[in-house]
Write a structure and sequence with these properties.
The chain has helices at about 1-40, 50-70, 90-100, 105-115, 125-130, 140-145; strands at about 75-80, 115-120. The chain has about 150 residues and is mainly alpha-helical. A two-stranded antiparallel ribbon has the order 1-2.
């Protein structure tokens, strides 16, 4: 069975290499056309759609990297409370005040000076929903696909 899986992946890798080689050849052809056109004053004969197709892989790679980074980050939920334990009804007002401060330590100090403490919420229906949005998606799939 492991050899069948390796054969499957070898075929996929070969296909990906062929597509990459074709893309690289097209990009090289586009660049030479642009350079030749710049030297001779003749505009290259590539359409806008062809130019977009040449750069699709870069766009996909960037978006894929962002999606995977967000999907692997831990999801944490916090609440702001006063020192006596009462909940702050407008936490965004406090957030906007401390947002301009540079480091997390400076922000924590500013919260302490205001008499506010930041507490992590460990159990909440929102966290349950984000962890398992439905029967076929996990948290990572949800954030990557979103």
């Amino acid at each position: 069975m492991p050899t069948e899986e390796m054969d499957l992946f070898a075929g996929v890798e070969a296909g990906l290499r062929e597509k990459a080689a074709a893309r690289d050849a097209e990009i090289s052809q586009l660049l030479s056309a642009v350079i030749t056109g710049a030297v001779t004053g003749i505009a290259p004969e590539k359409t806008y759609a062809q130019l977009v197709d040449a750069y699709k892989s870069w766009i996909y790679t960037a978006i894929d990297k962002i999606g995977k980074t967000l999907a692997t980050r831990p999801m944490r939920l916090f609440t702001l409370r006063r020192k006596d334990g009462t909940k702050i009804l407008d936490p965004m007002a406090i957030y906007l005040q401390i947002k301009s401060l540079g480091t997390a330590a400076e922000q924590a100090y500013a919260l302490k000076e205001m008499g506010v403490e930041k507490r992590e919420v460990l159990e909440h229906p929102f966290l349950d929903l984000i962890h398992r949005p439905n029967d076929i998606m996990s948290r990572m799939v949800l954030w990557y696909e979103t």
